[in-house]
Design brief:
Structural class: alpha+beta
Order of helices and strands: EEHEEEEHEEEEHE
Number of strands: 11
Shape: elongated
Distance between the termini: 11 Å
Number of domains: 3
Largest sheet: 3 strands, antiparallel
Strand order of the largest sheet: 2-1-11
Helix content: 10-25%
Number of helices: 3
Strand content: 15-25%
Radius of gyration: 21 Å
Length: 188
């Protein structure tokens, strides 16, 4: 009987199972092979270090997200922190200065010698200049683009549609907590 564990959607048909007890991990791994709806479920022990969006999964926490968000502007803390959890990403609401280009991401260092690039995506993003990252105009109104008379290559754009995050639906759970059944000590 497994104790409590959590399941997170990690994208690309990957789900991360976080168990409270190492013994439960071993039980599940030794119980292979697993299927769901007639589809094979391949399991692999995850050490928490392989990056997800540039960070180890263990750092996709509310505290880290709020800290990263604070580098962009004023963070608006949610009434319910569960709305920040998105499975393989963490959402943060930030007031940004629209007179400056949007940040594409940040180089983050953890532990002493490990670092990774954390890419940012933005929900509800209006028109955006893919040349300079400004929200005050779009590509066709960029002064440098206009003066080039269309000779700039789109491959040289520093921003792109990848900056747009899909609209998040809180109703669609991407993190599920499974509560185990604890037997009284006298029955064990």
């Amino acid at each position: 009987m497994c104790r409590n564990f959590e399941i997170r959607a990690a994208g690309d048909n990957i789900a991360l199972f976080a168990f409270k007890l190492e013994a439960d991990v071993e039980k599940v791994l030794h119980g292979e092979s697993w299927t769901y709806d007639q589809h094979l479920v391949a399991l692999e022990h995850y050490d928490g270090q392989k990056p997800v969006h540039g960070l180890p999964f263990s750092l996709l926490t509310r505290e880290v997200a709020l800290s990263l968000g604070a580098t962009l502007g004023t963070v608006i803390k949610p009434a319910d922190y569960s709305e920040m959890q998105g499975g393989n990403f963490v959402r943060v609401r930030v007031v940004v200065d629209i007179t400056k280009p949007l940040s594409r991401g940040r180089l983050v260092t953890w532990e002493c010698d490990k670092e990774g690039w954390v890419s940012y995506c933005y929900e509800r993003l209006p028109n955006l200049c893919y040349w300079c990252g400004s929200l005050t105009h779009d590509d066709k109104d960029y002064v440098v683009w206009l003066s080039s008379r269309g000779s700039l290559l789109t491959e040289d754009q520093q921003y792109g549609p990848w900056l747009r995050a899909p609209q998040f639906s809180g109703a669609k759970k991407s993190v599920v907590e499974v509560l185990g059944f604890d037997k009284p000590e006298s029955e064990v």
